[in-house]
Amino acid sequence: MKVRAIIKNNITNVRVLAEHPMETGLEIYEETGQKKPAKYIQKLTCEYAEKVIFLAHFGPSVSENPYVSFSFKGGKKGDTLLFRWNDNTGDIKKTEAIIN
Amino acid sequence: MTLSRRKFVHLLSIATTACTALITPAISWAAWVNDAFNANETEEAYKKLFGSTSLKKTKKVKLKVPKVPDNNNAVPISVKTDIQNVDSISLFVENNPQPLVAIFEIPDGTLPEISTRIRIYQTTTVTAVVKTGEQLFSKSQRVTITDGQCGG
């Protein structure tokens, strides 16, 4: 996950880009005619100071390599944000990022 | 002071009920969320997610999405509002196979504004729903998909 978190005027703006195919389960392999199995991030969370400050639930209509931007009050330069996503096949990914 | 056995059992049952009450909502939310994502019609998705189809259209919800997107597999969409005490912002694309696209929970201290990118399969109405307590506010916009490019 790529993260950019910047604090300004006591508001931290966060941009996250997660790497994930977000397969809808609707597409077909051209050679075999078989459906590509659905594989998509279902939950993306951000924690700060051990509190969940953002929680997104996704369906397969969220674009490939999901991008999300949000802001929260507070935050401090140098502090850590903890990101985590879970997908429908059981894959998990965690990333830490520093507020600038 | 020692606790009588009867009083202890009574206190235990109260504590158990209280704990169950705290745990149950989180599990119920997860079940509702899955059902809502699987709904094939917008009204059904509203019912499954919010338990209601009463949405109040309002100018207080700002929805930004291109009227004619360049790439219908990555349509930028933003929602912002000055409504107070927002619990969640949800996105619905009426003519997508499953209309509910995403739900963004907004804890205290997080601003009620989000941006993301979504897939829109055909010309449709896109709706943002802002939930605050029991109230549901919405803003919609028509989005036109020009060619047969449905991705692939």
Structure explained in plain terms:
The complex is a heterodimer of chains A (100) and B (152). Chain A is built from no helices and 7 strands. Chain A is elongated. Helices cover 0% and strands 52% of the residues of chain A. In chain A, the strands form 2 sheets. Chain A has a 4-stranded antiparallel beta sheet with strand order 4-3-6-7, with no helix packed on it. Chain A has a 3-stranded antiparallel beta sheet with strand order 1-2-5, with no helix packed on it. Chain A has strands at residues 2-8, 11-17, 41-48, 51-58, 67-73, 80-87, 92-98. Chain A has one domain: Sandwich (Immunoglobulin-like), CATH 2.60.40.10. Chain B is α+β, with helices and mostly antiparallel strands. Chain B folds into 2 domains: 1-38; 52-143, Immunoglobulin-like, CATH 2.60.40. Helix content of chain B is 28%, strand content 32%. In chain B, a hairpin with a 6-residue loop joins β4 and β5. In chain B, α1 (5-38) runs antiparallel to α2. The model of chain B is unreliable at 21-28 (pLDDT under 50). The interface between A and B is medium-sized, with 27 and 31 residues.
Whole-number count of domains of chain A? 1
Number of strands of chain B: 8
How many angstroms separate the termini of chain B?
Answer: 73 Å
**Beta fraction of the residues of chain B?**
25-35%
Order of adjacent strands in the largest pleated sheet of chain A: 4-3-6-7
* Shape call of chain A: elongated
